[in-house]
């Protein structure tokens, strides 16, 4: 459908005619996000500049029953920002001001459209660290990270996005502007709406401003790599590291398929005879970092590591981290369609889960490589096939259904950091159960009685 001309006129009055797009060529770039095989063309793309403009758009949408889909950079991997029912895509990237960095209070206030990297750089300029570190940090927005509760490479030691959200300014679908939380690390007045909005994937309110906690910048950081004959060996080493009382900043893994793809892509000098690679790193006082990394190396060696190497300098450390960060682009070169998923299991069952993924891939005759966060059990099984091979794509979907079922069967979950969106909605009830799904719908109705905000997501 197309929007009534009067509605378009109201939108232009609210945000300015230059910030309302309805032409087919203008809409097409917003028909997709970073999730393959999902598409939904909106009827309009609207780019507000203030919370008041967002509120006016939402009041109009509630009055007229038009769906509204909040969107940042569209880098999510769950089809969470697609207009699969048409309507308005509300793009928040114009709201890109860093409002405050407070070293005294260890916090920052930013508008929703600020990129994660921009916030990190602004904090670093003050000697502070914004800890969340999603792989898409150079393009993803803070608002989008909060809406999906993004994770990242530093999750084991520092936690995920929700651990750093102190407060929000959010606009409800009915147009009220609310401020949840604030500038305090301790505040238990009322229900924790800040936590409820974090991870709600744009179904309850539109985040326009976020207050986040910062940390002092660690004095130093370093990285090492260990190669193992099998991922099971690497998994046992991870268990030994945590059991020894070490919580490193980085503890990532690549399976053999990923190692080969990354080495071909980036020529980093990785060993191709290993069954798994464990990337580990730490930050803090120089002596503590050296002590921890040396001990991790010893534990890896004790658990059948073929080789352990510590980075000699910052450049080599960055190169090792690049091996993990470039896993997706490296794998993407192997075919014309890349399907990247995430699932999480308890840490001790990581190797078992990768084994199940390999069995599932063989059963459905699809190539699946796996990398991820060894420290918290979050895996990223990645399938690369020919975009024109409908049969292979169908087999891949069935394979991932079995992967999610296997994760649930191991007391895990269908998504650790990517979110549900439209992509994982078919598996959500299996994870939560019917009673929790019904509760989600009641919460949704309390926030959004007209059902206009990102409809069809998170069971709404």
Describe this entry's structure for a reader.
- The chain is α+β, with helices and mostly antiparallel strands.
- The chain folds into 4 domains: 5-91, Uridine Diphospho-n-acetylenolpyruvylglucosamine Reductase, domain 2 (2-Layer Sandwich), CATH 3.30.43; 98-216, Uridine Diphospho-n-acetylenolpyruvylglucosamine Reductase, domain 3 (2-Layer Sandwich); 220-326, Alpha-Beta Plaits; 334-432, Alpha-Beta Plaits, CATH 3.30.70.2740.
- 37% of the residues lie in helices and 21% in strands.
- It has helices at 5-15, 24-27, 51-64, 116-125, 142-148, 155-158, 193-197, 231-243, 256-266, 286-302, 314-325, 327-332, 350-364, 390-409, 425-432, 434-447; strands spanning 20-21, 44-46, 68-71, 88-91, 98-102, 107-111, 128-129, 165-171, 177-181, 206-213, 215-216, 220-228, 250-255, 276-284, 307-310, 337-340, 343-344, 368-373, 378-385.
- The longest helix is centred in the C-terminal third of the chain and has 20 residues, at 390-409.
The gist of it:
The chain is an alpha+beta fold. The protein has 16 helices and 19 strands. The strands form 4 sheets. Strands 12, 13, 14, 15, 16, 17, 18 and 19 form an 8-stranded antiparallel beta sheet that branches. The protein has a 5-stranded antiparallel beta sheet with strand order 5-6-10-8-9. Strands 1-2-4-3 form a 4-stranded mixed beta sheet.
């Amino acid at each position: 459908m197309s929007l009534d001309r009067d509605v378009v006129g109201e939108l232009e009055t609210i945000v300015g005619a230059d910030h309302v797009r309805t032409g087919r060529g203008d809409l097409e770039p917003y028909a997709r996000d970073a999730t393959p095989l999902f598409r939904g063309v909106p009827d309009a793309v609207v780019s507000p500049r203030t919370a008041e403009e967002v509120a006016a758009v939402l009041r109009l949408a509630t009055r007229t029953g038009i769906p509204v889909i909040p969107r940042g950079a569209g880098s999510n991997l769950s089809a969470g920002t697609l207009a699969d029912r048409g309507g308005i895509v509300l793009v928040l990237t114009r709201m890109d001001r860093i409002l405050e960095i407070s070293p005294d209070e260890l916090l920052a206030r930013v508008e929703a459209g600020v990129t994660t990297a921009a916030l990190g750089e602004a904090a670093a300029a003050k000697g502070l660290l914004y800890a969340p570190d999603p792989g898409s940090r150079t393009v993803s927005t803070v608002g989008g990270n909060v809406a999906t509760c993004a994770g990242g490479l530093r999750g084991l030691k520092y936690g995920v996005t929700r651990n750093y959200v102190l407060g929000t300014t959010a606009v409800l679908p009915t147009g009220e502007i609310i401020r949840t939380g604030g500038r305090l690390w301790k505040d238990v007045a009322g229900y924790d709406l800040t936590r409820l909005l974090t991870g709600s994937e744009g179904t309850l309110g539109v985040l326009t401003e976020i207050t986040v906690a910062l940390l002092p910048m660690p004095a130093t950081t370093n990285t090492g790599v260990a190669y193992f004959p099998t991922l099971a060996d690497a998994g046992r080493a991870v268990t030994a590291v945590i059991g020894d009382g070490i919580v490193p900043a980085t503890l990532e893994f690549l399976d053999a398929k990923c190692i080969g793809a990354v080495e071909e892509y980036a020529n980093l000098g990785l060993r191709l005879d290993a069954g798994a690679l464990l990337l580990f790193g730490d930050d803090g006082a120089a002596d503590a970092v050296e002590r921890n990394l040396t001990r991790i190396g010893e534990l890896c060696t004790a658990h059948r590591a073929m080789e352990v190497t510590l980075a000699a300098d910052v450049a080599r450390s960055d190169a090792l981290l690049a091996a993990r960060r470039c896993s997706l682009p490296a794998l993407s070169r192997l075919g014309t369609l890349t399907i990247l998923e995430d699932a999480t299991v308890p840490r001790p069952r990581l190797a078992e889960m990768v084994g199940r993924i390999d069995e599932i891939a063989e059963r459905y005759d699809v190539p699946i490589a796996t990398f991820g966060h060894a420290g918290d059990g979050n895996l990223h099984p990645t399938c690369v096939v020919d975009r024109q091979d409908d049969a292979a794509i169908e087999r891949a979907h069935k394979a991932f259904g079995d992967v999610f079922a296997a994760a649930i069967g191991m007391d895990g979950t269908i998504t650790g950091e990517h979110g549900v969106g439209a992509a994982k909605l078919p598996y959500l009830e299996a994870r939560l159960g019917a009673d929790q799904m019904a509760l989600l719908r009641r919460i949704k109705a309390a926030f959004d009685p007209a059902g206009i905000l990102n409809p069809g997501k998170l069971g709404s």
